[in-house]
Specification:
Structural class: mainly beta
Shape: elongated
Strand order of the largest sheet: 1-2-3-4
Radius of gyration: 13 Å
Largest sheet: 4 strands, antiparallel
Strand content: over 45%
Distance between the termini: 21 Å
Number of strands: 4
Number of domains: 1
Length: 72
C-alpha cells in the first residue's frame, strides 16, 4: 500500500523506500493491539527488510524496529 494510506502513529511511516505492508492485530481475549508496517529501508548503508511496530496495552505503549538481513 502507499505510505499515505497508512493510518495511525507517525512512527509507522518513518524511513521507508516505496510502498509498505500494513498489519493490525487486536487481541480478542485481552486489551492489547499491535500495528505494524513492513518494507525496505536503508540501515547503515545497507538495504534491509524492516518492520516498525507500535504495541499498546492500556496506557502502555512500545515502539519497536525490527531489522532483518535480506537475501533475494
Amino acid at each position: 500500500m502507499k505510505l499515505a494510506e497508512v493510518d495511525g502513529d507517525a512512527y509507522l511511516k518513518e524511513g521507508w523506500e516505496g510502498e509498505v505492508v500494513e498489519v493490525e492485530i487486536e487481541s480478542i481475549s485481552d486489551t492489547w493491539t499491535v500495528h505494524q508496517t513492513w518494507s525496505f529501508s536503508d540501515v547503515e548503508g545497507h538495504r534491509r527488510h524492516v518492520r516498525r511496530v507500535v504495541a499498546r496495552k492500556g496506557k502502555n505503549e512500545h515502539k519497536i524496529r525490527l531489522i532483518y538481513d535480506w537475501k533475494a
